[in-house]
Design brief:
single chain, 100 residues, alpha+beta, globular
């Protein structure tokens, strides 16, 4: 079993806070939604259907980034690259290959 909090340590505590359910850290009031529309380089979003960042949340950001490509991996949780490495690698390699 993969522990998604393993190795997060001090950084996680400073940025998120003591609980993964209630943000009390430095990210508490951080909101970049209005700024992502200014991204002008190739952009890819990669997420899983079972991630804490739900498909609805990811789609909200993807829709704000001009030309952003999104790969949604079925059954993948947070840290999809560890649980679904083949699908993640294929998505990233496919994206990069179009811009080399």
């Amino acid at each position: 079993m993969i522990d998604s909090n393993e190795g997060t340590g001090e950084c996680y505590m400073v940025m998120q806070g003591a609980s993964e359910f209630v943000c009390t850290g430095k990210l508490k009031d951080w909101d970049i939604r209005d700024e992502v529309g200014s991204i002008r380089v190739p952009c890819m979003a990669l997420s899983g259907t079972d991630d804490e960042g739900t498909p609805y949340t990811i789609k909200e950001m993807v829709d704000r980034i001009p030309g952003c490509e999104w790969t949604l991996i079925q059954g993948a949780p947070h840290l999809a690259n560890l649980t679904h490495p083949d699908e993640c690698l294929a998505a990233v390699e496919g994206f990069i290959s179009r811009f080399e």
